[in-house]
From TrEMBL:
Family, as annotated: Belongs to the eukaryotic ribosomal protein eL36 family.
Organism domain of life: Eukaryota
Family annotation (InterPro entries): PsdUridine_synth_cat_dom_sf, Ribosomal_eL36, Ribosomal_eL36_sf
UniProt keywords, alphabetically: Ribonucleoprotein, Ribosomal protein
Gene Ontology MF term list: pseudouridine synthase activity; RNA binding; structural constituent of ribosome
SUPFAM superfamilies assigned: Pseudouridine synthase
Biological process according to GO: pseudouridine synthesis; translation
Annotated organism of origin: Polarella glacialis (Dinoflagellate)
Name the record gives this protein: 60S ribosomal protein L36
Signal peptide: none
GO cellular component: ribonucleoprotein complex; ribosome
Length: 207
């Protein structure tokens, strides 16, 4: 089979030789769908990306990811063997193994980014769940409370008197994800490590 871009030389009109044959005018043939075999179009790539996003990995792909995460030479070979059995050829298996390796790298990059995010999220200059004066020296706690609006919105209620001298209470409830995180660390349990005393009159449990 000729390589892509190959142009056959013109015939010499002789019955023998490298370019033998009648001199003819070649017709321009329309491209066939089979010419594009093995090439991924933008549409196919988009459809596969959407399917992967919605459905996730196939069972054999998840098994390959488990093997590749181990990282040993034997599991690397077993992942290739599994891909070859599922996909039929050695080349397809190697390509699938490389694809799963890239997927693992993407997962680790995402986990690293989220780890950095949560580390900064839990730092004392932006603690969104509990009052920082429980964990910080008094001077740092005062400074932190003075400029961190997220801390105020998540941990405190604002009570004041309006123009009629009637008491008003402004409540800013916790987002569901942060509320669930508090429940996991035991803040919703009065007997737990993070009890109701931690929040006193500003508890999110009273929302």
């Amino acid at each position: 089979m000729a390589k892509p871009g190959y142009v056959k030389p013109a015939s010499t009109g002789l019955a023998a030789g490298l370019n033998r044959g009648f001199i003819v005018t070649r017709r321009e043939l329309k491209s066939k769908p089979s010419y594009r075999r093995g090439r991924k179009s933008e549409r196919v790539a988009l459809v596969r990306e959407v399917v992967r996003e919605v459905v996730g990995f196939a069972p054999y792909e998840r098994r390959m990811i488990e093997l590749l995460k181990i990282g040993s030479a034997s599991t690397f070979k077993r992942a290739l063997k599994l891909a070859k059995k599922r996909l039929g050829t050695h080349r397809r298996g190697k390509r699938k193994r490389d694809e799963m390796g890239e997927a693992i790298a993407a997962m680790r990059r995402k986990d690293a980014v989220m780890s950095i995010y949560w580390q900064s999220f839990w730092q004392h200059m932006g603690h969104a769940l509990v009052s920082d004066d429980k964990y910080l020296p008094s001077d740092e706690a005062e400074e932190d409370r003075s400029w961190c609006p997220r801390l105020f919105l998540h941990c405190y209620r604002l009570q004041f008197k309006d123009v009629r001298s009637e008491p008003q209470l402004v409540i800013c409830p916790l987002p569901p994800d942060l509320k669930a995180a508090l429940g996991k660390v035991g803040a919703a349990d009065a007997s737990g490590h993070s009890s109701e005393v931690l929040f006193d009159e500003t508890s999110w449990q009273w929302e």
